[in-house]
């Protein structure tokens, strides 16, 4: 699907964090490998049984705020997920194309807002180890609003909180259901990321344009604003 953004008509760029600005490999390792291994050890059950148990737990709350809530998972799994996140923090890394893109947006006068479903502790740990915060104008965790990005009430609350105009906004995320939610609210440009996880094969998007390197956007961004 062709990417055609009228940059002169864009004031605000909303950006997801995990898989969009940061390599999702951190979260894939944490939730798909470290958590099952820890559950297996603590409960003295086979690893494949731990994987099945956790897959069931994950599926039960997908697309809800609990899916992203470290407190919820600590309680459900009997683990100190916040402490584990803190320990793993140094492994969080930026995508190679993140800083060049964010710097170009700044140079062109675009407002750069992080909009993540990540729990505030998760967000704080990742900011500490990646320095991402210095490249953004505003940092928002959906937990402070009480709804995930999959919920239309979140978009209404964010629009009111930031004063953004949906028709003058670009939103980038690595989840197609979340892009659908943004588009339903009226966000004019919704863009997917085909390579959120450096350890996985590229994703295919059915309903939204997508790309694998933000630096491909820079020539038009810079020329339209010069």
Short structural summary:
This protein is of the alpha/beta class. The chain has helices spanning 25-43, 47-60, 70-77, 81-88, 98-107, 120-130, 152-162, 176-185, 218-225, and strands at residues 12-15, 111-116, 138-141, 169-173, 189-193, 210-211.
3D architecture notes:
The chain folds into two domains: about 5-25 and about 95-220, Rossmann fold (3-Layer(aba) Sandwich); about 25-90. Helix 6 links the parallel strand 2 and strand 3. It has helices at about 25-45, 45-60, 70-75, 80-90, 100-105, 120-130, 150-160, 175-185, 220-225, and strands at about 10-15, 110-115, 140, 170-175, 190-195, 210. With about 230 residues, it is of the alpha/beta class. The longest helix has 19 residues, at about 25-45. The protein has a six-stranded parallel β-sheet with strand order 3-2-1-4-5-6, with helices on both faces. InterPro entries: HAD-like_hydrolase_sf, HAD-like_sf, HAD-SF_hydro_IA, HAD_sf. Keywords: Hydrolase, Metal-binding. One of its GO terms (cellular component) is cytosol. One of its GO terms (molecular function) is metal ion binding.
List the helices and strands and how they pair.
Layout: E1 12-15, H1 25-43, H2 47-60, H3 70-77, H4 81-88, H5 98-107, E2 111-116, H6 120-130, E3 138-141, H7 152-162, E4 169-173, H8 176-185, E5 189-193, E6 210-211, H9 218-225
Parallel strand pairs: 1-2, 1-4, 2-3, 4-5, 5-6
Helix pairs in contact: 1-2
């Amino acid at each position: 699907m062709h990417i055609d953004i009228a940059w002169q008509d864009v004031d605000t760029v909303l950006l997801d964090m995990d898989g969009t600005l940061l390599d999702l490999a951190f979260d894939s390792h944490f939730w798909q490998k470290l958590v099952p291994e820890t559950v297996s050890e603590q409960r003295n059950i086979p690893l494949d049984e731990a994987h099945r148990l956790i897959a069931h737990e994950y599926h039960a709350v997908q697309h809800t705020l609990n899916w992203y809530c470290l407190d919820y998972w600590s309680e459900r799994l009997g683990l100190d997920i916040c402490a584990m996140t803190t320990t793993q923090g140094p492994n969080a890394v930026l995508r190679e194309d993140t800083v060049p893109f964010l710097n170009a947006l700044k140079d062109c006068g675009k407002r750069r807002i992080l909009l993540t479903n990540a729990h505030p502790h998760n967000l704080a740990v990742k900011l500490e180890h990646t320095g991402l915060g210095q490249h953004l104008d505003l940092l928002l965790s959906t937990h402070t609003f009480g709804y995930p990005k999959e919920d239309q009430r979140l978009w209404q609350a964010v629009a009111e909180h930031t004063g953004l105009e949906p028709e003058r906004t670009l939103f980038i995320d690595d989840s197609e259901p979340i892009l659908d939610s943004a588009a339903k609210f009226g966000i004019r440009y919704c863009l997917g990321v085909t390579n959120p996880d450096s350890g996985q094969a590229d994703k295919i998007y059915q309903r939204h344009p997508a790309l694998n390197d933000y630096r491909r956007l820079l020539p038009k961004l810079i020329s339209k604003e010069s």
